[in-house]
Write a structure and sequence with these properties.
about 180 residues; mainly alpha; about 75% helix
Length: about 180
């Protein structure tokens, strides 16, 4: 892929994401300018959107874990919910085509993507090792459902707002001096 083609694909994908955020109907916006020239078919566009979702989700999980390293389940579910807020149209498209694939190839691709997402959620929450795939898929599906429930009722939670850094207090000697001075 040439630089120009790569750049055009990125621009078209951003336009698709913006359009999906406005429409929020769960349908691939194949009518966006450049889609027909840039993507082979619906599956190709859906794969690009799914990759965008997984990339953003992974980044948000990492960000939340940096601020909340103790309650991993909460950090992962909040990150999923935040990602669903940020890419609401994309999430609706993924959910729609996961439930109603256009053909067998899309059904297989969406099932694999769902398994990968569940695996990521379980491993990042510390609830499964990299070796126990069946347990990870089950736990990841449970975490996704918890995140969906959280997503329905809470606006975006930023790590800085949710997990404030503790107030820096002076050393013991500085605090004693302040008490004596008062």
């Amino acid at each position: 892929m040439t630089w120009k083609a790569y750049h055009n694909r990125g621009e078209t994908l951003r336009a698709v994401i913006n359009t999906s955020s406005v429409r929020r109907d769960g349908v691939l916006p194949m009518d966006v300018a450049g889609v027909a020239e840039t993507f082979r078919d619906e599956l190709d566009l859906l794969a690009a959107l799914t990759l965008k979702w997984h990339t953003r989700l992974s980044g948000n999980i990492e960000q939340m874990l940096a601020h909340q390293p103790v309650d991993l389940d909460e950090a992962v579910t909040v990150a999923w919910s935040n990602t669903a807020h940020e890419l609401a149209g994309v999430r609706m498209i993924i959910d729609n085509y996961r439930a109603h694939p256009l053909d067998d190839a899309m059904a297989r691709a969406m099932a694999t993507a769902a398994d990968k997402e569940h695996y990521l959620l379980a491993v990042m929450a510390g609830r499964s090792s990299l070796l126990s795939e069946e347990a990870a898929l089950r736990i990841g599906a449970d975490l996704e459902e918890r995140a969906r429930l959280l997503h329905r009722g809470i606006p975006v939670i930023t790590p800085d707002a949710a997990y404030e850094e503790p107030e820096v207090r002076g050393s013991l000697l500085e605090r004693l001096r302040a008490v004596l001075a008062a």
